[in-house]
Amino acid sequence: MADAMLNRNTGGTNAAARPHRIVVVGGGAGGLELATRLGDKLGRRGRAEIALIDKARTHLWKPLLHEIAAGSMDLGHHELDYLAQAHWHHFQYRTGEMIGLDRGRREVLVGSVVEENGTEVTPARGYGMCRFTKCTNTRCTALSRSHSTPSCASSTGVPSRR
């Protein structure tokens, strides 16, 4: 058991010790709710690593936009910071826009993050995954394969949805 925990925490090669990696792309109402619930249920207990990827740093519930446009509501008071939500609910937030999906390597490809003046803040990168969920509006689509790859755990007790 101690070896399994050591491998999980140090990036060892013992695949059975590594929790599932679930990537949620899109922090709208559906994606944020999914990442929050998965984090509360699986992330808190170490049964899965959940990552939320979105190009914005905050979430604003869209039905409030008309009040903000009318000037009757302060945007800063009603937006939710993804990083704070991730901390409170045991998931990781990663900034960036999904630019591709490499099914062979089981990675979500995320483009570089660039400031307004053109300075690159974060280079393009990929996030390894066992499960991938893309959320648009309030609809989430799960794209997954069986957990036969060595980098994905199959003995963590996380139910597989096929």
Describe the structure.
By secondary structure, the protein is α/β, with parallel strands linked by helices. The protein has one domain: FAD/NAD(P)-binding domain. It contains five helices and twelve strands. Strands 5-2-1-11-12 form a five-stranded mixed sheet. A three-stranded antiparallel sheet has the order 6-7-10, with no helix packed on it. β11 (131-136) and β12 (139-144) form a beta hairpin. α2 packs parallel to α5. It starts with a helix and ends in an 18-residue tail after the last strand. The relative contact order is 0.21. The model is unreliable at 1-13 and 144-162 (pLDDT under 50).
Q: What's the structural blueprint in terms of helices and strands?
A:
Layout: H1 2-10, E1 20-25, H2 29-43, E2 48-54, E3 58-59, H3 65-69, H4 75-78, E4 80-81, H5 82-89, E5 92-95, E6 98-102, E7 107-110, E8 113-114, E9 120-122, E10 125-128, E11 131-136, E12 139-144
Parallel strand pairs: 1-2, 1-11, 2-5
Antiparallel strand pairs: 3-4, 6-7, 7-10, 8-9, 11-12
Helix pairs in contact: 2-5
Task: Give the DSSP E fraction (strand runs of 2 or more residues).
Answer: 25-35%
CATH C-level = Alpha Beta
- Structure class: alpha/beta
CATH topology: FAD/NAD(P)-binding domain
The outline comes out as globular
- The average pLDDT value, as a whole number, equals 74
Give the strand tally. Answer: 12
**Secondary-structure element series:** HEHEEHHEHEEEEEEEE
CATH superfamily: FAD/NAD(P)-binding domain
Biggest sheet, strands in spatial order?
A: 5-2-1-11-12
Number of domains: 1
The Rg value, from CA coordinates, equals: 17 Å
CATH architecture: 3-Layer(bba) Sandwich
What is the terminal-to-terminal distance? Answer: 29 Å
Runs with pLDDT <50, length 5+?
1-13, 144-162
Largest sheet: 5 strands, mixed
Query: Helix amount, in percent?
Result: 25-40%
Number of distinct helices: 5
